[in-house]
Amino acid sequence: MRWRIGKELERAVAAKRRVQIALAVLILLLGALLATGVYSTFALYRSAEDRYIHTLFPLKTHSQDLILQMVNEETGVRGYMLTSDRRTLQPYFLGRKNVLTDLAKLSQLTASRPGLQVELKPIRYEIRALDGYFDRQITFVADGQLGEQRARTDVLGGQRLFDRFRVNSQSLSASITAFVDQTRSDERRTLTRAIGLLAASGLFALVIAIFLLRRVPERLRSLYSDEEQARIRAEHGANASRALAHVSDAVVMLDDGSRVLSWNNAAEELFGVPAEAALGRPAGSIFPEFGVLIERSGGELTPVRIGGEERWLAISLSRFDGGRVVTLRDATSEHVLERARADFVTTASHELRTPLTAVYGSIRTLIDREDELSEPVRQRLLKMIEQESEHLAQIVDQLLVTAQIDRGRLRMEERDCNVAELCASVLEAADSRKPESIRLELVAPPTTRPLRCDPPRLKQVLVNLVENAIKYSPEGGRIEVRIADTPDRLRIDVEDEGLGIPPSEQARIFEKFYRLDAEMTRGVGGSGLGLYISREIVEQMGGLLSVRSRRGAGSTFTVTLPRALSGAQPRADALVRT
């Protein structure tokens, strides 16, 4: 008996030692695995830091910034050609300084890459040529009107230089991209070696772990396994509930009968239905179009109306045994942004193309047929170039003002303003451009007091309203500007007898890039920014811009501004009719 007990004791001790040895080996392997992982991670980090942070990222950044700075130079010179104001050359001088910095950085970064150095050489040549061209343009404009004409004549030559620069810059960017791809390939090989080492160590550790698991008594393994599985299931359930509660997308779980099994917080916010009211109910009784949403679960945006408001949803569907999970992402803001971007591209391209075509055609006529043109024809062409250039400047100014409004940087400078004189000057300027079939009238009360406002901004609003009235009165008629003065506010009405605005469109005409005649079926153009800018300016002055209109019966735009207390005395203005 003692011999048997001793043998069993020896076997138990031997088994214990084998388990201890196996555990020690396993610990060593895991330590080696950890050390290998740390080393590999450190090697990858250092390699990525050296290649990407210190070389590749600056290469791509400076090559892209080089093109941007050349565009800034061109923009500054073009602005100077349009305005003859040397302050507009600031982007040119800043861009020229930054170009030199970018070239120096690129030379330093490509020192170990002869191929990139070769491609950088023609870019230097093109930049010198462009800088010489820009200097000539600046000199021409500074010489006066004749120089400005020579500068505008040489625009196409500058475009050819810039096209060659762009081609060479794109070639350099392509080479840098190839360099990046090669670096990524090298990093991938390093990562593959590290993964191989980790896999080998992990496999050996797995073999030891399996050996230990086979030696552990089945009873103990079963107890621990049951306990662990129960704990894992509980944790998974709790984690899943917490995750769904914080997911930004609406997640709805349905059974085979389309009854709601799960309804997260995002679904409550999207549909306005609490989870307590949704659980257990058919999805169609909560939202009638739920079946349609499930049918359109292909990743495309789907328009629906929720609570009287249009929403654009991206829908995905996952099936499991006994039901399905529907995920709905509210992409309304993305859709609105994309639509605004498309409207901007369409509007800007059309509005810029028309005056540019007129300017280019007039210039080509002056160049090609200079000896054949009579003086009246030449003056008419020059007048057309001047008018279309002013149109281009107005479009650019509208875009700049819109950007200032969107960024909250539009500033108001208040001072006393004679509104009657301001309206008269606007109508006087419009009278020279209006068709003969349109009559302009200004009606002012016998007495008006100066209004505290920003006169240039108020004039911009009135110019937009009067020009809109002229544009949307293709058959002519009367356009009347009326001023009504009360103790606490001043009202300006701009009334026309033109096309009118349908009631369904009146809420949208103050949106950015929206045009009533978007397809220009009546030949009415425009950037779609005038009314948006006007409304924002009036509201920033504490006023209100509204519209009354019927289709075919004309429109009346009303600017209502609060009257601030002022020490100025009233003056008498006669009734003015133009």
Summarize the structure in words.
It contains 15 helices and 14 strands. It has 578 residues and is α+β, with helices and mostly antiparallel strands. It has four domains: 204 residues; 84 residues, PAS domain (Beta-Lactamase, 2-Layer Sandwich), CATH 3.30.450.20; 68 residues, Orthogonal Bundle (Helix Hairpins), CATH 1.10.287.130; 158 residues, Histidine kinase-like ATPase, C-terminal domain (Heat Shock Protein 90). The protein has a five-stranded antiparallel β-sheet with strand order 2-1-5-4-3. The chain has a five-stranded mixed β-sheet with strand order 7-10-11-13-12. Strands 6-9 form a two-stranded antiparallel ribbon. The protein is flat. The termini are far apart.
Instruction: Compute the number of structural domains.
Output: 4
Mean pLDDT: 75
Shape: flat
Q: Which stretches of 5+ consecutive residues score pLDDT under 50?
A: 518-523, 565-578
**Total beta-strand segments:** 14
Query: Strand count, sense and closure of the main sheet?
Result: 5 strands, antiparallel
Order the strands across the largest sheet as they lie in space: 2-1-5-4-3
What order do the helices and strands come in, and which of them pair?
Layout lengths: L1 H82 L6 H20 L4 H29 L2 H9 L1 H61 L2 H29 L3 E6 L4 E4 L1 H7 L3 H4 L4 H4 L3 H6 L5 E6 L2 E12 L2 E8 L1 H37 L6 H32 L8 E3 L1 H13 L6 E6 L3 E2 L2 E3 L1 H17 L5 E9 L3 E7 L34 H11 L3 E6 L5 E8 L8 E2 L6
Parallel strand pairs: 7-10
Antiparallel strand pairs: 1-2, 1-5, 3-4, 4-5, 6-9, 8-14, 10-11, 11-13, 12-13
